[in-house]
Design goal:
alpha/beta, Helicase, Ruva Protein, domain 3, 2 domains, five-stranded parallel β-sheet, globular
Length: 335
Amino acid sequence: MQTEERIQKFRVAFTRISQEIEKVIVGHADIVEGTLISIMAGGHVLLEGVPGLGKTLLVRTLSQVMGLPFSRIQFTPDLMPADILGTNIVVENPDGRRSFEFQKGPIFSNIILADEINRATPKTQSAMLEAMQERSVTAGGEVRRLEPPFFVLATQNPIDQEGTYPLPEAQLDRFFFKLVVGYPKREDLAEVLNRTTEPGRVELLQATSRQDILDMQKLVMEVPAASHVKDYAVRLVMATHPGSEFATPMTGQFLRFGSSPRGAQSLILAAKVRALLQGRFNVSFDDIAKVLLPALRHRLILNFEAEAEGITTDMILQDILEKLPAAEDAGKAGV
């Protein structure tokens, strides 16, 4: 199949998935797009928003439309790692002998909804790290691979912090995108009421298969990015490091630590997906800029001064975007 045909097939499948999801999810087109971009790039998503905005419904709908098995894990303070990964149980064989048999946990699926992930203890949260990074689970002294594609879509409530355990930086860094789910607009809320308080049922159609998703992920990896475009992503990430030659005054004043190399990887991969959606087989500076906030906002660590003055990571990233030129010879960010 020619490259042009593969790009068109990618765009059609992406659009079909989005349209099916929008039968259920109202007014969150940017969140749907960001989630799908992460999936096509093989990454995990952290959805942050107050309760009742449709985060859980989005993930459940996504699994239906994509035709992938789905597991929901409700994170609570008493949840244990074995409740997620699985455990060895004693079984009796037909001959009367007893042996250990591994009982798989809900992590053994393609789409995992980690609901209110910050309500579990650090010990339980750490059980997700290997699965998210290595796509494998070590239990009972044996490493078990997770069937691709594998995505974790986690939700957290930003306002009710009582009884919660903030995600460690190492785990936050495993998320490809952090998407902030806001309140619906007036017309969107009216449409939600129309769909949920009156008779009628939405029929969702399966838009893709498991193999379609794997093929789309493969195409994303094949999209080329020129060296000067990659360098733009590198300079954007370095601009988040206090003391770097590309750091802005805001970076030096309000950040303790900047983005890890995973941030640069996310920028490039997300930009590749966006390029395909625009019908291009190459990455542009604009592709990088458009995905900067969701790719890096959760990878920056603010200092006390930023917290006291109400400065957010989004503000710092916007400042970097405005001051750092796409072409390196246009000058440095701090100048």
